[in-house]
Amino acid sequence: xMKITWNVLFKIYYILMAVSVLIGLLMLHFHMLxxxxxxxxxxxxxxxxxxxGCALLILIAKGMGxxxxxxxxxxxxx
Length: 78
What we know:
The protein has one domain. The protein is built from 2 helices and no strands. The longest helix has 25 residues. It is an all-alpha fold.
C-alpha cells in the first residue's frame, strides 16, 4: 500500500490547479462571449464590483454592530 505524504498531495494539488487554469483558458478562447451591457466589456469589472460590494457589506455590518451594541453594564442596570 502506498503511503500518501504531503509532497504527493501538493503535487496532485498543483497538477489539478494547472489543469483547471488550462481548461479556463481554453473555454475563454473557444467560447463566444455575449454581453448585454456596455460596462461588461471592462476588464475585471465583476471582480472589482464584487470587491467593493463585499467591502460595503462589511462596513454596513460594522456600523449596525456599533449601532445595536449594548453597554458593558446593560444587564446590571436596574
